Structure formats: structure tokens, C-alpha cells
Amino acid sequence: MKKQLSFVFTFLLAVSIAVSTVATAQSSVLTFKTTDHDFGTVREEGGPISHEFVFTNTGKAAVIINNVKASCGCTTPSWTKEPVAPGEKGTIVAQYNPQNRPGAFRKSITVTSNADPSTSVLYIKGNVTPKPKTPQDDYPTAMGKLRVKYRSFNMGKVLTKEPVEKTFDVFNDSDAPVTFATNVVTPGHISVDIQPQTLQPKQKGAIKVTYNATDAVERKRLGFSTDRIRLFTDEENDSLKEFTVMATVEEYFEPLTEDQLAKAPKLSFAEKKHDFGKISQDEKVTTDFTFTNTGKSDLNIRSTKANCGCTVSNPDKDTLAPGESSKISVTFNPRGRRGKQSKVITVFSNDPSAPTQQVSITANVDAPAGQ
Fold this sequence. Notes:
Layout: H1 2-26, E1 30-32, E2 36-43, E3 49-57, E4 65-70, E5 75-79, E6 89-96, E7 103-113, E8 119-129, H2 135-138, E9 141-143, E10 146-148, E11 152-159, E12 164-172, E13 178-179, E14 190-195, E15 198-199, E16 204-211, H3 216-219, E17 223-232, E18 240-250, H4 258-262, E19 267-269, E20 273-279, E21 285-293, E22 299-306, E23 311-315, E24 319-320, E25 325-332, E26 339-349, E27 356-365
Parallel strand pairs: 2-8, 11-18, 20-27
Antiparallel strand pairs: 1-3, 3-6, 4-7, 5-6, 7-8, 9-10, 10-12, 12-16, 13-15, 14-16, 17-18, 19-21, 21-25, 22-24, 22-26, 23-25, 26-27
């Protein structure tokens, strides 16, 4: 019995091998001339590049390419769609777009077919040299004959200790000189100096902005703020150049010893968050945030600032003796708003350890009836 089973097993194994051999002999086989292509160095501005991978069907049955998929969207493949008979050739074309892709690259293209094996992987590589920058790239914002990076000058963080200066480029993109007028329109805490006063064709100049926040506490101008400035040129058209100056002003405190900090004022809130829950658009709501001076000297609330015009905050008292408490009343008007709302109120004080603190309100505003 065992001899019979052994014979049957050997016979079936031989049949399986024979069938497999016949199937392999009759299958299609993709043989590529090369599976890796190096484009070398290419220019970013040169447009899409492509390479044709040539294959031969070295099998006994027709090849059908089912799909060709690239490893990224920057590579677009195409291929021979018709069946390729034994001994015939077909192609896989890989196209690569170097635009906005400077630097070295290596991408794969996966080919799926009815061949044996059913998957082949091709590779393309190269190095993209960045396109030379033009004045339009460096200075994308046109203002008449002049070009700048932005219509705003960001001064960043400005302390009340001393004025801050920053320089911003301006470029004359025309074929004629452009002269800046000496008169500029700025608020008192901002001054502007332009060098050179006359920009020759294709010449770069500098707009130096000086921001003086030394009196920001008295003017209640702490926190993020924006100002408008106006410059003028001798251009027949577009002579007015209007910019926004942005700054985040913070009060400067001299370094203190541990003993001095222990005797300093300290701003402490009982709660820093309030949720009004669900409210209607015509329902104006108010809450109070209670705060205490837990320090050892007088606390002064310099100012309060909300992050939108829909919120108003007013401290009941802006100077508190040690141990004294007060509150800030915050009113939220949801008119014209819908859904989840979150607003922040920044409180500035003379607490040297935490001079800028925030409280927040949230609400879920219902749409008006019928909407």
C-alpha cells in the first residue's frame, strides 16, 4: 500500500512539474534593454524630460501591459497599449517635470503585465539645477515701476526699551529712474528713510523703517498692531506707495533679582476660560473674569486687547494693591456669526514674570430661524 501511495505522489509531482514547465515555456516574458536611466543634469526651466524604456517579448505568448504606475505625481508614464507578440518590441515612456523640483531625484515606475514575472520596476534619476531667479521672483509685488517682496513691513517683536530698525528691499524694474519724494506720511512712532532717493533702472534700494515703542505703555499700544504709511514717487501713474507696518510690542522689564521678583506685583486669574454654550445670533452675552494681585506691590493693568471687534473687554479697576481683586467684563456679540466660535482677550500688566496673559471665551452660535 505504501509503495502504491509513493508511486501516486511521484507521478503527481512529475505531472505538476511538467505542467509548470509547459506553462512557463508558453508564457510571455518582458526583457528590458535597460531598467535604469540617468538624465544627468537638467535645468528646472527646461520643461518636462522623458525617456523611452524599450522591452522585447522573449516569451512564447503575447504580452499585455495592464498598468504602469509612477512613485510620484511628478512622473507621468505612458506605454504600448496593444498586445506585443513574441519577438516584438514595446515601450514604456517615463516623463519627469522638473519645475519647482530642484536637486537630485530618483523615481520608480512599476510595470504590471501578464508576463512572468508579472511585475517589473524601472528607475529614472538625475539632478535638477534651479532656474536663475529674476527680479519678479525676488520681488513678486509690483507697485507701479517698483517691485517689493510684500506690501507690508513686519517689524517682529519690538520692546519698549529702544527703537527698532529694519531694512526692506525695493527694486526699480523699469527703464527709467524713479525718485522718492522727501515727504512721507507716517504715524509719530514710525519713521522712514529711503536710500538712494533716486533708483536707477534695474537698481535695488533700501527702505529703512524705524519703530519707536518707548511710549507704547502710555499710548496703550501693547501687543500686535498695524499702521499705514504712505510713500510717494515722481511716477506719472501709481506715484502713491502705501504699506502696512506690523509689530508686536512688548513691555521691557529690567532683569530682577529673586528678592525683587518676590516683592513684585503678580497677576492671577481665578479662571481663564469661559464657555457660553449654545447661543443665538441675536443674543449678546457677557461674562466676568476675576483677577487678583497676589504679589507684594501695586499691580497695574496696562491694557486689554481682543482678537476681534466682536469682543469688548473693560477692567473695573486698572491699579490694584497687594491682595486686591477686580474683574474684566467681556461681551460677545454673535451677530453675523455661526457655529463654533473661540475668542481671545490679551491682558497686559506690570507683572514682570508674566506681563502678557490671555483669557478666552467660546460659544456655539445657532443659525437664525429659517436658515
